[in-house]
Amino acid sequence: MKKNLYIVSIGSNIEPQDNTMKVVEILQKEQEIIDQSPFEKTEPVGFKEQPDFLNGAVYIRSRMEPKEFKLYLKEVEKRLKRVKGKNKSGPRTMDLDIILCNGKIIHQDFYTATYIQKPIHYLIQKHSIQIEG
After folding, report:
1. pLDDT tens, 17-63?
2. Residue 132 lies in a domain
């Protein structure tokens, strides 16, 4: 079975230190983490009346295909008590998004969100990942 390579963006602003540590522990137990970026405190974008975020990224090798892996990440968010409210930019315990899949950028926020770009670029450069397109 083929293994896929993913870079996943991680963000939290509800108990961010605890929740980012918990999500990395979960992913280490259930997937193969190749590396992770440093985590940085960032200001909220859009809805400003909320705490700052802690953002980073992980580089993962997985047997899961992209659709299955995306569903898996949403299930991990739920385990960390992620509640999706009406405000898409509101506070959250955990936000996990696949940004790269096998060297291809698949999440458009990569092009506009510096809080996503910085940790992703860290992993791309460190591992000499060739980007398609």
Report:
1. 999 999 999 999 999 999 999 999 998 877 678 789 999 999 999 99
2. no
In the chain, DSSP assigns E strands to 4-12, 32-36, 40-42, 53-62, 95-101, 104-105
Residue 113 inside a domain? The answer is: yes
Query: Quick one: pLDDT at residue 92?
Result: 83
Decide: 115 and 122 in contact? Cβ < 8 Å. Answer: no
pTM of the model: 0.92
The closest of 7, 32, 3 to 96, measured between CA atoms, is 7
Residues 6+ apart with CB under 8 A from 124: 7, 100, 131
- Domain residue limits at 17: 4-126
Q: Predicted confidence band at 87 (pLDDT cuts at 50, 70, 90)?
A: low
Tell me the C-alpha distance between 52 and 60, whole Å. Answer: 26
Give the CATH number of the domain where residue 63 resides.
3.30.70.560
Tally the residues of the chain. Answer: 133
